[in-house]
Specification:
single chain, mainly alpha, 3 helices, 0% strand
């Protein structure tokens, strides 16, 4: 026969009459923040809220300089041109070989 192993789990029940004094401040702040975010979602202006959040996130982005953008764009264009020429050459070569096949 196999022995059943049971695991003891401590569960702490918090009632509204006796608040938990061991909760640290960080958890309280997070609870307040989640309550505020829930209030924002319930409002009629969800689009306005999302737009404001998006704009604030875009302000945090580290944008590259114009010189870096031009350099990277040039690299991409040159790689595309090289790949195009290689594929064009392979296509022409296979087309020429196909014409040599009798039949």
């Amino acid at each position: 026969m196999a022995k059943k192993q049971t695991e003891n789990v401590d569960v702490e029940v918090i009632t509204p009459d006796a608040p938990n004094k061991d909760v640290n401040k960080k958890e309280k702040v997070q609870t307040k923040a989640t309550k505020k975010s829930k209030k924002k979602e319930k409002g009629p202006n969800k689009l306005a809220t999302k737009t404001k959040e998006t704009i604030s996130e875009l302000k945090k982005v580290s944008w590259p300089s114009f010189k870096t953008v031009c350099k990277n764009t040039g690299i991409v264009i040159s790689v595309v041109i090289i790949c195009t020429l290689v594929l064009f050459g392979i296509d022409r070569l296979l087309g020429f070989l196909y014409t040599l096949i009798p039949g």
